[in-house]
Amino acid sequence: MKSHYCGQITSKNVDEEVTICGWVHKRRDHGGVIFIDLRDISGICQVVVNPDQSSIFKLAESVRNEYVLQVKGKIVNRSQETINKNMFTGEIELIATNLVILSKAKTPAFPIDGYVDVNEDVRLKNRFLDLRRTETSERLLKRSKITAIVRDFLQNNGFNEIETPILTKATPEGARDYVLPSRVQPGSFFALPQSPQLFKQLLMIGGFDRYYQIAKCFRDEDLRADRQPEFTQIDIEASFIEESEIIRLSEELIKLLIESFSDHKLEPFPTLSWDDSMERYGCDKPDLRIPLELKEIADFVVDEEFKVFSDPAKDQDSRVVALKLINGNSLSRNKIDEYTKFVSKLGAKGLAYIKVNDVNDLENGLQSPILKFLKPETISSIINELEVDSDDLIFFGAGKKEVVNLTMSSLIKKLGEDLDMYQKEWAPCWIVDFPMFEKNKEGNLTSLHHPFTLPKCSIEELEASPESAYAYAYDIVLNGYEIGGGSLRVFDSEMQKRILNLLSIDDEEAANKFGFLLNALESGCPPHGGIAFGLDRIVMLLTHTTNIRDVIAFPKTQSATCLLTDAPSQVSDQQLDELHIESTFKEE
């Protein structure tokens, strides 16, 4: 139906007869001559319909925005004064000799022919229209290019693409499974995979050595701007491989992607231990574009009468930190109050601060409501420890570690955004040496990564002190987002059983849930490990958006709803009967 794409025609095609197809982006009637900007996935070509072409001129008068046309004609150069330097095709135009309306269109729910700030719900409800907008289509086209680069890189490094099942067995991986009833096995259920973790380990046991997959994964968890219930992983696993080799290979891939879509050449990625990252930034996803760090000051305030500081300084599960903001005195009291409300919503009881007007006069050169509660020598020690200068501002966080870490790490990222403190465009890093376990709210051990991660200790050491055990686990972080995580895997069945026992999974339950894996581990399992990258997050960062829904063709809302198709929806009683399910839900 067409000989060329609209957006690929240039002056090289002058005097050629071409046929193009696309949507009417704009239609303009200038003194009896009709101009139509015809758009397809590649761009826009200007079509000219002259009145002497009477057979098609009347038809051209009837077209409206988003009609679908086929146009034949000759490519000519535009006159010098009408060249559009902002368009790739801006030097030429197509003089129409034939025009066919392939499809008519009703008035769209929002304009397509220019950038208009449209409510996201309206865009998602009419996603087929939103996909036509240049901003949306360019992101998805870049996603396709990113995926192609990933595949080429992995194939060239000896990895084989292998698909793993979507219908699988429910396993505990940190979030709720999506479960599906089996019609032919009444009372039994499949689960959608949270990751291909166990299957890729089985592939290693099966001798496939190097595997990858662009894998669909599913997690029934609370959503955020950078999360979706169904998402895509770049999943990688290899046998007879060490942690350093996985990190090197992964770093090469991320460098390749960033350098393919920007002018930046990246230095080797810095590496932080999990402990170091938590101490300095309060999180394991630091944004290293922002030059702000936390300083532990518990030793300086432990003997103070000011219990807001001294009580947590004496508690091993708490911490007291200071955050220096260079030239922070420019912040108004109202702005400081805003940041106080910000951290309070995250669980902090407040946000103490000291404004340093004159660092050489600690008696009269400081400004803060908490000065009267602290000894002069304590203030002096803190000033010296932080290397504070005049016009700096110090924020303080004190309380339980999890609260201080959450609030102060969030404050760092908010200050960086509000004050535009970013020192570079790309700041990747590795976080390594994760703890093997953490405690949940009930005081039980849970895996920090997943229960198949290899610990850096023996079985005996692990059982004697599980809370102090570290793992061969690693995350890659880019601009404050975790874009990938992986580990070396347990390849000994006895070690795997003991880890499951520590997670309150006894041998009977382990055999029921993971018997197939434990059996495979006893069949000659090679040392192996891997990593999984979040493709959606990588595309999100490379297309300079902060909303993951922008880079998924048909995303869900934050309530896990598809506005386009109205999914999820109720099913008929007949379907429920076939599945031997009775719905107990009653509408309010």
Summarize the structure.
This protein is of the alpha+beta class and 588 residues long. It has helices at residues 54-62, 120-125, 127-130, 134-156, 197-205, 243-260, 274-281, 298-301, 307-313, 333-345, 376-386, 401-418, 459-464, 493-502, 507-521, 535-542, 573-578, and strands spanning 17-30, 33-40, 43-49, 68-77, 92-103, 160-161, 179-181, 189-191, 210-218, 230-239, 271-273, 294-296, 318-325, 352-356, 366-367, 393-400, 428-432, 437-439, 445-447, 473-478, 481-488, 528-534.
Give a written overview of the molecule.
- The chain is 30% helix and 24% strand.
- It has helices at residues 54-62, 120-125, 127-130, 134-156, 197-205, 243-260, 274-281, 298-301, 307-313, 333-345, 376-386, 401-418, 459-464, 493-502, 507-521, 535-542, 573-578; strands at 17-30, 33-40, 43-49, 68-77, 92-103, 160-161, 179-181, 189-191, 210-218, 230-239, 271-273, 294-296, 318-325, 352-356, 366-367, 393-400, 428-432, 437-439, 445-447, 473-478, 481-488, 528-534.
- Strands 6-9-10-22-21-20-17-11 form an eight-stranded mixed sheet, sandwiched between helices. The protein has a five-stranded mixed barrel with strand order 1-2-3-5-4. The chain has a five-stranded antiparallel sheet with strand order 12-13-16-14-15.
- The protein starts with 16 loop residues before the first strand and ends in a 10-residue tail after the last helix.
- 32% of the residues are buried.
